[in-house]
Amino acid sequence: MSTARQLNSLFPRAADIPERYRQGAPIEQREYLVNGELRRWDGPLVSVRSPIFLATEQGDEQVLLGSTPLLDAEAALTALDAAVQAYDHGQGLWPNLRVAERIQHVEGFLTRMREQREAVVHLLMWEIGKNLKDSQKEFDRTCDYIVDTIESLKELDRHSSRFELEQGTLGQIRRVPLGVALCMGPYNYPLNETFTTLIPALIMGNTVVFKPAKFGVLLIRPLLEAFRDSFPPGVINVIYGRGRETVSALMASGKIDVFAFIGTHKGASDLKKLHPRPHRLRAALGLDAKNPGIVLPQVDLDNAVNEAITGALSFNGQRCTALKILFVHETVLDAFLEKFTAKLAALKPGMPWDDDVALTPLPEPGKVEYLSDLLDDAVAKGARVVNPGGGTHRQSFFYPALLSPVTPAMRLYQEEQFGPLVPVVPYREVKEVIDYVLHSDYGQQLSIFGNDSAQVGRLVDAFVNQVGRININAQCQRGPDSFPFNGRKNSAEGTLSVQDALRVFSIRTLVATRFNPENKELISEIIRNRESGFITTDYIF
Ligand code: G3H
Question: How far apart are the C-alpha atoms of 101 and 203, rounded to whole Å?
Fold first, then answer.
């Protein structure tokens, strides 16, 4: 069947959707979480539309999922005030709780969160078009991340329960919170990526204002009660609305101490500049990327194609770690394109709940037009669409296009497409690829596909000072979550991993004293009488 014909029957009729995956009446959400209570917003709402359309007698109709509060700056600032008050210059209940107690709160939240798995997975499919398997994976991976974070904090705390004696000075070093954190995640991992900053921020004793991503907003709704009931008032506050209005006001207040943001480098810079005391703002940023895949002449081509296809097209290429440009040596170009085309043809388009579906509609309005423009630009400048039907689209669905030869004159060479376009740049000399990486504005990861040890070794050395991770014969990816995840240039600020995130959201504080009999006795008394939460040798198992 031709791609165009296949797309004619892409969107289901309402009655064709299996009952358990059907979306009920639109959800009108008016609640937001401030100071331990779900407040009702009586102001304007913003509609939440699904990337999914339904086939009707009148043609394709986009599904309206519901609406969320369009808070104004004033409402957002009340959430900030609650967080500031709960932190209370570090004197609040939460920043002073013992680590074991904070862990109990997070464990309580995790139990409640697990109860919402089905609701969240359902909304992941409907709000961002992520397929069922990947939506479930996102939920479960997030729960695992929380469990691992707890374990990692216990280990950190065990280290901190010891005193150190150096050059006659006795010291105890602990990690303590930084203050008020603003956490904002991306729409492609609206649960997972947001929680990989939110949970470490909370568990380290910071208080938080959390603003959900631009899509994948309603799926936070089932967790609001769990947040409310699991943490003391003001520790976690959840706001909604346009970033320009709400987040700008928060940053301009100067009361944000940590800014955790996953999005564009432009967005991050604009927001950071609003802070009146930028030297007091710590940032953890995950930003743009244009990860290259480099296919060397000596290569296991089947493996390279398998990895490149998932690397470039899983979740329709909407991953920050996706392979966004492929450099393929001219001697293997034809074979590579042929194998890639065959594999691509086997990817099944459909709805997120369909069995084995790989390609789904895109949530961003205007995205299909943007991708079509990039494709047209490349074709006008000499590239061809290699795979049959590549670039065919219908409403929010864009069928992937493999494009070759892509050259520096084309927008796709530099722009991060964040979608199902696969640009292939044929090369003769490896220096062309090295130059690309050296002069790229991005520096997240790259993949090298090859089996000649001299070539691979040389390239690894050429790139170690350019990107945060080099993958050999494997696609780019964030996991395992215990590995450092970062980037250079415009791609990131700071390093995240289960262990690193605990450090990002805290600072080491040291209590030190000259080691003499009087001070030894004083410290022993404090410990014996449990007169300090900081100076203690309590040990968490
Ligand atoms: O969107 C960026 C994500 O951090 C990528 O994570 O490599 O596990 O898909 P992933």
Answer: 10
Residue numbers of the domain that contains 452:
291-493
Residues 214 and 230 in one domain: yes
The backbone torsions φ and ψ at residue 403, rounded to the nearest 5 degrees and listed phi first, read: -120, 135
Which atom of ligand 1 is nearest to 318's Cα?
1
Is residue 394 a part of any domain in this protein? yes
Percent of the chain with pLDDT over 90: 98
Reduced to 3 states, what is the DSSP secondary structure of residue 60?
A: strand
Contact 223, 247 (CB under 8 A): no
Q: Are residues 253 and 296 in the same domain?
A: no
What is the whole-number distance in angstroms between the Cα of residue 485 and the centre of ligand 1? 9
Averaged pLDDT, 195-217: 98
Pair 265, 135 in one domain:
yes
What is the CATH classification number for the domain harbouring 87? 3.40.605.10
Residues 459 and 473 occupy one common structural domain: yes
User: Rounded to 5 degrees, what angle do the CA atoms 288, 352, 121 make?
Assistant: 80
Q: Any alpha helices (H) in 390-497, and if so which ranges?
A: 430-439, 453-463
Q: Is the pLDDT of residue 3 over 90?
A: no
Q: Pocket of ligand 1, candidates 191, 310, 447, 478: which has the most ligand atoms within 8 Å of its Cβ, to mutate?
A: 478
pLDDT per position as a tens digit, 383-407 = 999 999 999 999 999 999 999 999 9
For 94, the 3-state DSSP assignment is helix
In the numeric block, which tokens belong to residue 308?
Answer: 């490149």
- Count up the domains in the chain and report the number: 2
Q: For the residues 89-109, what does the mean pLDDT come to? A: 97
pTM above 0.85, yes or no: yes
Predicted confidence at residue 271, as pLDDT, reads: 97
For 39-97, what is each residue's pLDDT tens digit? Answer: 999 999 999 999 999 999 999 999 999 999 999 999 999 999 999 999 999 999 999 99
Task: Give the ligand 1 atom nearest the CA of 186.
Answer: 1
- Same domain for 302 and 277, yes or no, is no
Give domain status of residue 513, yes or no: no
Nearest CA to ligand 1 atom 7: 477
Coil, strand or helix at 177: strand
Q: Which tokens in the block code for residue 125? A: 């499919």
Expressed in angstroms, the distance from the first to the final Cα of the chain is 60
**CATH no. for residue 482?**
3.40.309.10
- Residue owning the nearest CA to atom 2 of ligand 1: 320
